[in-house]
Design brief:
The protein has 325 residues and is α/β, with parallel strands linked by helices. The chain has two domains: 36 residues, no CATH class; 245 residues, Rossmann fold (3-Layer(aba) Sandwich). Helices cover 38% and strands 16% of the residues. It has a six-stranded mixed beta sheet, with helices on both faces. Strands 1-7-6-5 form a four-stranded antiparallel beta sheet. β5 and β6 form a beta hairpin. It starts with 5 loop residues before the first helix and ends in a 20-residue tail after the last helix.
Length: 325
């Protein structure tokens, strides 16, 4: 996501990150030169995208203990699935410590929990202070742990994983993870797909709010998954100023469309049209939000959509779109 010159800013950010990852030896040796060939930076980045990588400093003892306690409370509060009921398990992640992502993740957890009757089956993880001081950090390991716990509790034959991630993005390496100056890294499409496969979640509503997030679509789509992204694989999305309450995509889809008593697919269409109007007004390149709906998705999505509250919720926070002038 970006406000101005998004690709240049994103490239600079990720070039620095790649240098750190290379220095730490986190990219497989097969990504570097072989048989006397010079290393290929693009090949190195693509190899890194096949898995999650991160470089971080350890927490101070008191901070580490606090994080462990917060995670334990969050994981232990998740309720088991109800036999014979299509339960939704919601995980909302603010993966970058810029405040906008934490605020968006926290409110998204509330909106999706209400919409899909997922109270007691919702967990929010976020870096920075945007989501408040009682939300566990979105460390990559903690994200994996939260998904694993959901996998233990849900019945993959009938229940649904609802995943929302909001952060910066890159057209090769995927989703940016940042925890202030302590750590940085990424979570690539192949790695995320592996996590979801490992926990056994079959029915998936996957919503990814990030620049270039369309790179996740061909990796995550299947017959029982509904994948929604803020942008195509070669476009930025907008509104990620750290001071904002919402990104464009989060505001249009979560804060407005999904609060309404309409179907999820109709909400996506409404949000996409709203975003297109904002972008035309600002004269910026269209982000082109994407959707991929598997042929068997309606079997579970129709059940979830019947639970949508009859009365629309009230949007909160400062609108992401500010008219020019």
């Amino acid at each position: 996501m970006s406000r101005s010159h998004p690709k240049h800013a994103s490239f600079t950010r990720w070039r620095s990150l790649l240098a750190a990852v290379l220095a730490a030896g986190l990219i497989p040796a097969t990504a570097t030169g072989q048989f006397g060939r010079a290393p290929n930076p693009e090949a190195q980045m693509r190899a890194a995208a096949a898995r999650g990588t991160h470089v971080q400093s350890p927490l101070a003892p008191a901070q580490a203990l606090r994080q462990v306690n917060l995670m334990a409370t969050a994981l232990n509060s998740l309720q088991p699935q109800r036999p014979g009921v299509v339960d939704a398990y919601v995980i909302s992640i603010g993966f970058d410590s810029d405040g906008v992502f934490g605020r968006e993740a926290a409110e998204t957890g509330r909106v999706l929990s209400r919409r899909f009757d997922a109270e007691g089956r919702t967990i929010v993880l976020a870096n920075g202070t945007g989501a408040g001081d009682t939300v566990p950090m979105a460390d990559p390991n903690d994200v994996a742990a939260a998904l694993a716990r959901i996998g233990q509790l849900m019945d993959p034959a009938e229940d649904v994983l609802v995943l929302y991630v909001t952060t910066h993005g890159h057209w090769v390496t995927g989703l940016a993870w940042k925890d202030g100056s302590r750590g940085a890294g990424h979570l690539g499409p192949v790695y995320l797909a592996g996590l979801l496969d490992e926990i056994g979640a079959r029915n998936r509503l996957l919503i990814i709010s990030a620049c270039f997030s369309g790179v996740f679509v061909p990796i995550l789509e299947n017959d029982t998954s509904y994948v929604i992204t803020a942008a195509s694989s070669d476009r930025s999305s907008f509104g990620c100023d750290a001071r904002n309450d919402w990104t464009f995509f989060g505001d249009a889809l979560i804060n407005h469309a999904l609060r309404k008593p309409i179907g999820t697919q109709a909400a996506f269409v409404e949000a996409r049209e709203e975003i297109e109007g904002w972008e035309r007004s600002l004269r910026v390149p269209q982000s082109q939000p994407q959707q991929s709906k598997g042929r068997n998705v309606d079997r579970w999505l129709s059940v979830l959509d019947r639970r949508v509250p009859a009365e629309a919720g009230t949007p909160v926070g400062r609108p992401a779109y500010q008219p020019p002038g």
